[in-house]
Each structure stands twice: as C-alpha cells, then as structure tokens.
Amino acid sequence: MKLKEMPDEELFTRGHTACSGCGAATAVRNMMKILGPDTVVVSPACCLLVFGATYPLVAWKVPFHHVAFENTAVCAAGVSRGLRMQGNDHTLVLGIAGDGGTADIGIQSLSGCAERNEDMLYVMYDNEAYMNTGIQRSGSTPFGAWTTTTPVGKVRSGKQNFKKDMPQIMMAHNVPYVATASIGHIQDFINKFEKAKKMKGFRYIQMFTPCPTGWRHDTAKSMEMCKLAVDTGMWTLYECENGKVTINRKPKMTPVQEYLKLQGRFRHMTEADIQKLQEWVNAKWAADEKFAQCKSQAP
Amino acid sequence: MATKKVVTGNYAAAYGAMRARVKTVAAYPITPQTFIVEHLSEFINNGELDCAYMEVESEHSAMSACVSASATGVRTFTATSSQGLALMHEILPIASGLRLPVVMAVVNRAIAAPINIWVEHNDIMPERDSGWIQVFCDNNQEVHDMVLQAFRIAEDKRVALPMAVNLDAFILSHTVEPVELSDPEEADKFVPKYVPPSPILDPKAPTVVGPFVPPEYMMEVRWNLDNAIRQVPKVVDEVNSAFAKQFGRNHGGMIDPYMVDDAEVVLVTIGTASSTAHEVVDELRAVGKKVGLVKLRFWRPYPTEQMRKIAGRVKAVGVFDRAVSYGVAGPSFIELRNAAYGLNVPTMDFIGGLGGRDVSSVDVRFMYERLLEAAKTGKAKKEITWMGTRGVEQ
C-alpha cells in the first residue's frame, strides 16, 4: 500500500484527547488504517487508554480491551486464544503499550507470549518515559534525559543509564517478525504494518513516537524529531523477518547534538555527557550493522 | 451413567472443569494445586477436552489470560494456591469488575512468611472484597459438584461474576475418596453451552471491555456489582435444587445446617473441619447435649440474614477459623459477630489448624464444651481462643 492509497476511514477517530503533536496518536491513527476493522485492540493503563477510551467518549471503532498495566501481551494472547477457539482465525489481535508497559513492567508477560509464539501483533509505542503518570524514567529513556524521576540536580542530572535494547531482546525470542518503525518514515511504517498484518504467530513492532509534553519540544516538530532520531543513529530502522535481518535505512550519522538541542529534556547535558551518548550511538550502530550482516540470510 | 472412582480433590476439580467443556485454561504450577492443571492438560492432550491451554509464565498472567479469553465469549477456568493467588490479586477485581464469569479452583494453602505448603484459609480470605463468589468444600464429591455448579452460578445473567471453589490443601487436594464422576450427557444437561452474560469483544459489533471510567459513572458501576452479588443466594438455591434433582446429591445452599433446629449452641465451620465437627455433634447428641453445626459453604457473599436467624435462636455461637485477621479475630468470626450484632448472644472464635496443624475431634469437643459453658453462664469465657498453641492459655 502506498501512502496515497491509505483508506479515508478512521478507526481511531478524531475527538480523542491526546496532546497536540502526540506521536502516539498519529502513529495509532495511521496504524489502524493499515490494520483495518477486523482488529481487536488490547491496551494497558497508559496515555492511549486515557485519551482514546474514557467512558463514554471512545475514539475506537474496533473492539478495545483494557485489563491492567503489566499484562497487555498475555491479555492479547487470551483474546487471540478465545477467538481462535470459536473458529475465528481471521481477526488480528493487537496488543499495544508504551515503553514502560512493555520494556519494564510488561516484559515478563511479553516474553512468555513471544516464547509461546502466540498469534498476535504486539506494538510498543516508544515515547521513552512514563508519560501518562507525568514523565518518569523508564528502561527505554535515553541516557542523559531529564525526567521527573531523573531531575536536574546539584549532584546528578538526567538518566544515568542507557536505553534498553528491546528489539534485540525480542529478536532473541526467535519470533516470526520483529521491526522498528517511525512515523517520520511513513512508507516504511506502512510496509512493516502491512507485512506484520499478513503473518501468523508472534509479531513485534516498536515504533518511535515523540512526546512534546515529556520531551519538551515544539509540538510542530514531532516529525522532524523522528527523522533526526534515525539520521543520528539514535533509532535504527530495521526488521527481522523469520530470522533474516534487514536495515531499512542507514543513518547519516548526523551528530547527536543536532537531535538533542531541539529538546528541553537534554538541555542540561554537559559536553562530556553528550560525547558519552555519541560514543554509545556509534557503538550501537556498529553493533546493529554487524548484527544485520550476520543475519542477512534466513537461517 | 456416572462412574464412581476413587480420586483426589485435585482430580475431582479438573474433571468438573473438563465436563463443563471449558474452552480456555491458563495456568501456572504451584503446590498443592499443580495436579489440577496437569490433569487438565492430560484431558486436552488425550483429546477428551477441546480447549486452549496456555502454559503462561505466572499466575498473574494466568488470571489475565482468563479474563481476556472470557471477554471474547468463551468459558474459562484456572486453578491456584496461596502465593499464586496473591500474585493474581490485582486481576481478581478486574474479572468481577468486567463481569466475567471466570471459574477458579483454589487449593487453600498458608500464605508466607513463614513459607508453608499446608492448609490455611489465609490465602483466599484477603480476597474478601474482590467481588468473587466464594464457596468452600468439605469433600471431593462436593469439589466435583461445585465446579460444575460454579459455572451455572457465575454465568447466570443476574450474577455475571467470577467464582472461586475452595478446597483444603492436602486434606482434599491429595487425599483420595470415592467420587461419582459425571458423564458428558449429564454434565451437558446441567451446564449448557456457554452464553456470555456480559458484552464481548466482537469485531462485528465493536465495544469497549474495560474503559477508563471517570467519577461521573463510577458509583453506578460499583452499585451494579454489589447488587449482582446480592442475587447469589437466590441463584445458589436454584442451582443447588436443580443439581439435587438431576444428580440426587444436595450439598445445601449458602449454608448446610446440621442439628440446628433445637440446638442450644451452634458451631460454624468452614472447609474440611466440618466433617470432623459433624462426627462430634453425633457423639454429643448421643449423650443428650443439644449441639448443632453450621457448615458455612459460601463466604462471599456472606449469608448474614440466615446466620442472624440462627444466632437469634441459640444460647451461644462459636466459629472455627482457619485464618486470622491480625489484631482483630478470625475473618469468619468477624462476619458472624456482625450478623449477631445486638442479639446479646455470646460469640466465640476458635482459631486453629493454621499451616496444616491437625484439627481433631478432641479440638472440636473442646469448642463445644466452651460453648455449652457460655450457654449456661450467658457469657463467653474468652472471645478468641488460639487452639493448641504452645505458650498460649486456652
């Protein structure tokens, strides 16, 4: 499907209450156009629940299910098993959660579902902190970033640890499909969701979704942020299809400083810390590239 | 025809779920429950049961998967004990809040610390306010029968709530007793094809199962659930009557009273201590003591009115508790004292059998002696007695 062929029908409709410039809302709206009406959505307690499914003003035109925070994957698996037991082998079951709900508290049930190869698509919308509770640090928050639990202080400022590499963790589960996506690269985004939709078994897509409220950037610059994240190498666009890894876009290796300077969350960072992050990015890209070369053939 | 076999309580529970033709089981091993889910996986792998079996990675996931599978409109079952139940805790009020009739067998085991695998009711008692219907069993036949009945009660449109069937660790779970195991035709007649009592996740008719609910609507949601669980006694009586009519076995309704009508004193028991107490009542009746027994079957909802009527007719009421609410009393006693409020009848709590400590007929005789003494004096010697506890005065 080409961008211009995207259906007009909105399955995640206007009227939701997301902040302006919300990457997650944009991603979900576009994702649903690709996944279509034969979808059941499972989501934890997160921004998406609040801005899309507050009773009685619900933005979803497909069935939507919320249970708790740490169990999105297994709840989606429960939905999938329940539907399949009734002879329904066509409905796509989508579990969608933020980075906290996925990489931190949700990783146990996620790993279990991946290991069992549950027939579902799991999407992590990565806004790099607990945004719904007010911008707290998660395992997916990048090094150096200010959050309300990694505040700028006299002794220490920003997150001291590096971002958890969730795509690698998911690829290690040997599931049919793992990909990263970004709303700043919409055709690549469409291709990946289309591909995932057609497959069976456990599929995982991690999408980059800027949060102007938490990242302290201009709401008009969310797309620019997406592009810079890929260009700097902060976000690798790649996919692993039945064990075969493809890099979808090589980073230009623009200095990370270009990406950092647009966001208030990095404003306090010292030269030394920026250098530390740059080295981490360089090493990460080198590792990703090498990994993709090693896995360039299906096993 | 039903077949009579000598089986454990765990087998009886698994068999009941199999005969109810559950469509999704999600479970995690924990002693002493494990055999239930092992038996279920055997039934499935042998082709006796057409069911999705999810070997999940925790009890939290087990309950989560059951909730979500149930939300698609299939009959679901799981089983757990103790720490596993504690791990499920977060999801229990979600099952009831979403009005999903998940059925679960709980093999009651002590909660840590100290860690202990034997019987105690301190695992399920803290789930008092989770919105689950809870029944306790006294023998393996009752376990089999109550699992079947649980689906009828939980799935009733007036109720639409999850239900826990409790059985005492080892005393029932691992002990063999002769049990009449229902055949498929009988079971199908009693537990018909599943009809979801609540809205489900259907792409042809989209709805939200589990929205974010603001203050403007929360009171009504809570009231509806409270009202639903208040319908349970009526439904339990109907289901029990239907079961007795079809199978010829009557386990009683919310309570099972024995020799209560002319009793001067009554002891309220829960779980397997009931059988022991039953024997003691026979012994004491044989020597002319007017003692009675109430086997408390349902603990949620609590049969407050029924218990009040009984408490109002006797001279003393005692409660045997296999659990404790620290600093207050046994949980079952707290309910009884509430039911007997203002009646001016002496009430006494006997806390015992914790962590699998034996509860013998000697213990039960002691309880009746104390009750008869209170009936004479009009006053309880001690409100709370810790049975056979070293260093503690009886």
Write structural notes for this entry:
The complex is a heterodimer of chains A (299) and B (394). With 299 residues, chain A is of the alpha/beta class. Helices cover 37% and strands 16% of the residues of chain A. Chain A has one domain (3-294): Thiamin diphosphate (ThDP)-binding fold, Pyr/PP domains (Rossmann fold), CATH 3.40.50.970. Chain A has an eight-stranded mixed beta sheet with strand order 4-1-5-6-8-7-9-10, with helices on both faces. A two-stranded antiparallel ribbon of chain A has the order 2-3. In chain A, a hairpin with a 2-residue loop joins strand 9 (237-241) and strand 10. The longest helix of chain A is centred in the C-terminal third of the chain and has 24 residues, at 271-294. The relative contact order of chain A is 0.13. Chain B has two domains: 3-247, Thiamin diphosphate (ThDP)-binding fold, Pyr/PP domains (Rossmann fold), CATH 3.40.50; 255-386, Rossmann fold. Chain B is built from 13 helices and 16 strands. Chain B has helices at 9-19, 34-45, 59-70, 82-88, 92-97, 140-155, 184-190, 215-230, 232-247, 273-286, 304-313, 331-339, 361-377; strands at residues 3-7, 24-27, 52-55, 76-80, 103-108, 133-136, 163-168, 177-181, 208-209, 255-258, 265-269, 291-296, 298-300, 316-321, 347-351, 384-386. In chain B, the strands form three sheets. Chain B has a seven-stranded mixed beta sheet, sandwiched between helices. In chain B, strands 10-12-11-14-15-16 form a six-stranded mixed beta sheet, with helices on both faces. Chain B is globular. Chain A binds chain B through residues 37-40, 42, 45, 49-50, 53-56, 58, 60-68, 70-71, 74-79, 81-86, 91, 108-109, 111-112, 115-116, and chain B through 23-24, 26, 50-52, 54-58, 60-61, 64-74, 76, 90-91, 94, 98, 201-203, 206-214, 217.
